[in-house]
Every structure is written in C-alpha cells, then in structure tokens.
Design brief:
alpha+beta, Transferase(Phosphotransferase), domain 1, 2 domains, 13 helices, 40% helix, ATP binding, Ser/Thr_kinase_AS
C-alpha cells in the first residue's frame, strides 16, 4: 500500500492499485478543482516525480470531461513520441477507478510566476533567455498540431539549472489546421481577443497572444490588461489597448506589439518570433521604436488618458501609447519612406480610435437604434456567458510589483 513517508499513514485507497510497491508519496505540491499534484519517489531508483491525479467524478459538465480527455491524449503523445528539453517529460498515463494519473518529471525551482513576483520585473537579458526557451517549446507543440490554450507564468516552470519547462496541458488540444476551434478556455488575463469575444479561432495565434502577455509581465512586473470587472477587461483585450513602458528596449517593445496584435492573422508566429532581433541582439538597437512609436506631446498624452481610450495602469513608468491593431510582423525590408508613411497612418488611426467612445467588445452590425439595443443585449449575454465559464474553470493570481 502506498504510504506517506513523513507520517507512515495510508493514503487514499484509490491511489494504491496504480502505485503499489513502486512509488512513495512525499508531500502535496498543489490542489485543483478536480484533484491534486503530489511529490513522490520511485522506490527502486529514488527518482522524484510529480504525480497529477484528476478525479473525473468531480466534473460538472461535458466540457470538463473533454478537457481531461484532451490532456490524456496529449500526455500519451509526450510519453510515447514527443520530447523537448523545455517541456515537462511524461513518464506514465494511467486510468483507474474513475481517476486519471499522470506521472511527470519533477521540476525543482518553482513557477515563473514566483520569479516575477519575487523580483518585481525580470531584466531583459534574463527575460530574453527564458522567453526564447518558452517560445521554442510553443513552436514545438504547434509543429506537432498541439495548442496549449492556457499559457501563463503559473504553467511555466524554472528548473534548478535556470531553464524553462512548459507544463499543464489541461486545456490543451490536438488541432486540425483546416478547422476552427470554438471552446473558450484558459485564464482571462492571458486570453486573446478572439477568445473573449467568443469568435471561432485557430489555436496557435491564441498561444502567441498569451506569450505576449507573459513577456510583458516578465519585463514590467505588471499585466498589460487589468481591470476590476470582466466586461471592462474583455473590452480592453478585444481592442488590444495597453500601455507601452518607455523603459524597455525598442526591440522588446516591437516584439510585444507583434505578439499582442489584435488581428490573429497578422499576429507573429512562434517560428517568426524566434527570429526576432530582440532574441539575438546584444546590446539592443534603437531603429524599431522610431517606426512604431506614435509621436506624442504631453497634451496629446493627457487627452488620450482622459478619454480612457488606452489608460490601463497608473503604476507603470512614463507610458507610451500603443495602438495594438495594425501590426508589422516583418520590418527589416521597410524603406525610410514607408516608415514615415506608417507613422502618419498609425497616428491617424489612433486619434480616430480615441475619439470613438462607442467601442464595444464586438461591433454591432446595424446602425439603427433597435439593432444597437439588440447588439448591446447580445454583448452583455456573451460577456456574462464567458465570465461564468472562466469563473468556473480556473483560478488566477494577479501579478503585482513588490
């Protein structure tokens, strides 16, 4: 019988049939809505592993069952076929007595979330290393038709050697590139615009948006999209309104902008992100910011903040306004004349966007009063439905500077 090594007490009988005579439980690492993760030791080799137990009896709907089946399918692929240095290894996947057991590589060092919380913000050299490793892992799963859909610092581990390990495919999915997905899941603070507006989407761009939020959080210690209510949060995400701190290098700002691109078709891919100059430049150059930064004065900035068009957080230092919709994924071949033209066009779009006080999470299709009312009601219903889904499927810890 599996026993707790600290107190020698017998643990739940449902664990025994799977791990009898092979593993010894050490301690609980964490608990979730549907089970727990505990640290165990292989009796024969003394190798430590993390065991995730999902109790299917706790599921409340079919969506939760589908997520569990997806995770089981993905973990079996990692157990038998796929391996990557920046993805947690899967040793075993077993089903017994209405529970699913995942035996995983134990990663000492903790979560990226804790690193950000402890340091307040990560310096660009370190953030560059970690982000590159994260995107390498994301590029690998996308190449093998797997989407994560819950990328956040809590699901990114840092081992004792200081290397990134991606984990937790609880919302993962093996996707068909020719088909759209319509399950809206993950953490709302890291969710892409197509998620919060309940728009059918393709998987990889959703992950890349979340990577952009993670990169922003690492470099600033703050979340780019943060509001007190879900409708306000969803609106800012759907419009891609966030603040660009001027303390970051030009290349870092450009990469964040390419990741937090409102249009998923123009959002940078994992493969292209790995080619971005920020991941290869040392020290960073300063030519990109001139191309994407909107010329502004103090009066212009105060006016924009007063209109509440782009104001996110008063805690970030000296913000530079970001438009966040028309994104340039490739810029190396742009001529000086094109750069000037892009600056003027971007500034014009920003001014028009700031004056539009009727921005919604999703645009109404008609301009008459009746259709506007119907559109507003539909928006409220959609926002409330997504809010209920998010509140029932996950838990979020906010990033704050210390």
């Amino acid at each position: 019988m599996l026993r707790d090594s600290r107190s020698d007490r017998a643990v739940k009988p449902r664990l025994c049939n799977i791990f009898e005579d092979r593993y010894r439980k050490i301690e609980i690492l964490g608990k979730g809505n549907f089970g727990e993760v505990f640290l165990a030791e292989h009796v024969a080799t003394q190798r430590k592993v993390a065991v995730k137990v999902v109790d299917t009896r706790l599921f409340k709907n079919d969506d939760q069952r589908r997520h569990a089946e997806n995770e089981k399918e993905i973990c079996k692929l990692f157990q038998k076929r796929y391996k990557h240095p920046h993805i947690v290894d899967v040793t075993e996947v077993n089903v017994h007595d209405q529970s699913i057991y995942f035996v995983l590589e134990y990663v000492e060092g903790g979560e990226l979330y804790q690193q950000i919380k402890n340091k307040g913000r990560i310096g660009e050299p370190q953030a560059k290393k970690w982000f590159k490793e994260l995107v390498e892992a994301v590029a690998y799963i996308h190449k093998h038709s797997i989407v994560h859909r819950d990328l956040k610092p809590e699901n990114v581990l840092v081992d004792k050697m200081g290397k990134i390990k991606l984990c937790d495919f609880g919302f993962g999915k093996v996707f068909d590139a020719t088909k759209l997905l319509d399950t809206y899941c993950g953490s709302p603070f890291y969710a892409a615009p197509e998620m919060v507006t309940a728009t059918p989407y393709r998987g990889p761009p959703v992950d890349m948006w979340s990577c952009g939020v993670i990169l922003y959080a690492m470099l600033t210690g703050q979340l780019p999209f943060h509001c007190d209510t879900m409708p306000e949060l969803f609106k800012k995400i759907s419009l891609a309104h966030y603040v660009e701190p001027n303390t970051l290098s030009d290349e870092a700002l450009h990469l964040i902008k390419a990741l937090l691109c409102r249009n998923p078709k123009r959002r940078i891919t994992a493969e292209n992100a790995l080619k971005h100059p920020w991941l290869h430049s040392d020290p960073p150059t300063h030519h990109i910011k001139k191309m994407i930064k909107i010329p502004s004065t103090n009066t212009f900035r105060k006016s924009a903040i007063k209109s509440n068009a782009l104001s996110i957080s008063s805690t970030l230092p000296s913000p530079v306004i970001s438009v966040g919709d028309e994104e340039l994924a490739s810029y190396n071949t742009t001529s000086e004349q094109q750069k000037t033209s892009n600056n003027k066009a971007t500034a014009a779009r920003y001014i028009l966007h700031g004056l539009n006080k009727k921005s919604q999470v999703a645009p109404t299709r008609e301009k008459n009063k009746d259709s506007t009312k119907k559109g507003s009601r539909a928006l409220l219903v959609t926002a409330e439905r997504i809010k209920r889904f998010f509140s029932n499927t996950f838990f979020h810890r906010r990033l704050t500077t210390t």
